[in-house]
Amino acid sequence: MKALNLYDIEDLRFEDTDKPELKSPDDVIIKVKATGICGSDTSRYKKLGPYKEGMTFGHEFSGIVEQIGSEVTSLNVGDTVTGCPAVVCHQCHYCEKGEYSRCENLYVIGSYEPGCFAEFVKLPASNVLKLPDNVDLDTAAMVEPSAVVAHGFYRTHMKPGATVAVMGCGSIGLLAIQWAKIFGAAKIIAIDIDSHKLEIATQLGADYTINSIEEALDQAISAIPEKIDVAVESAGSPFTIGQVLTLPTKGGEVLLLGIPYSDIEIKRQHFEKILRNELNVIGSWNGLSAPFPGEEWTATLHYMSTGEINVDPIISDRLELEKGPETFYNLVNKKKHYDKVIFHP
């Protein structure tokens, strides 16, 4: 089969590789129909390189069940599905408590096992979820990032009627705007340095937008009458991780969703906001809960089926998989603008 395999930093190749085979009675092989580029994929491509040289890359996808193992009863060949790419051990202390995002042996496909930038991918049956009839395959390729965002919101103590600020309006931030509405936000503030992303944020439900290059953030926030109850950091930037601490009201919450790929140094006046304002700072990792893979996944599929999670405005490009190497190069080196890229193998 054809796949995108990562050999080194900025060395991604479209080439033939082995098709996955059923080896366990609970294995499921899925024909990939749509698969998306995650921000963590671009960081590994640009900065970190592969976990294993030549590994098939990617972890966000949807597709059609091609083969099932002998003990699989929850799925049938031909089912349209999405897959949770996080593989957990189901044996460690955290798994025994149902805290699967904290599994001591967690890994995601595309790291130590082949991922979904390929014509076919394999997962355990417990990681595979059938799609509602009205959720299309491109939408379902974004169930995983939505589940990651949902996991963070479930960790907050957010109440209906809250004001939520979202800092960083990439795919995660734009999904966070929609989850904030689902959780009952009365007002949502979107903050970014890209006016195009802020336009999408407005389309998806943001009540206020702030371009923090064009106007001073503290002044723009002070002009908004509502006090911010929950501030979501979804950019993973060393700069915004400090800034986001200045946003919530006293006793408010900061939800950290963005993954930084460089060291963080927080200014004293930013750090003191945690202390003086008695902020609750919440780290969030992956998107798993019990029963595995969790309510984040079933809720995402529900809200995609109702239209309350809408990913169409987020997806900018639908491309053939063979365009992967040039797309990654153009994306990380800013040779071309993309929002969310979906490959069709």
From TrEMBL:
Residues 7-276 form the Enoyl reductase (ER) domain. InterPro entries: ADH-like_C, ADH-like_N, ADH_Zn_CS, ER, GroES-like_sf, NAD(P)-bd_dom_sf, Zn_alcohol_dh. Gene3D superfamilies: Medium-chain alcohol dehydrogenases, catalytic domain, NAD(P)-binding Rossmann-like Domain. Its cofactor is Zn(2+). The keyword Membrane does not apply. It comes from the Bacteria. Belongs to the zinc-containing alcohol dehydrogenase family. This is Galactitol-1-phosphate 5-dehydrogenase. It comes from Mammaliicoccus vitulinus.
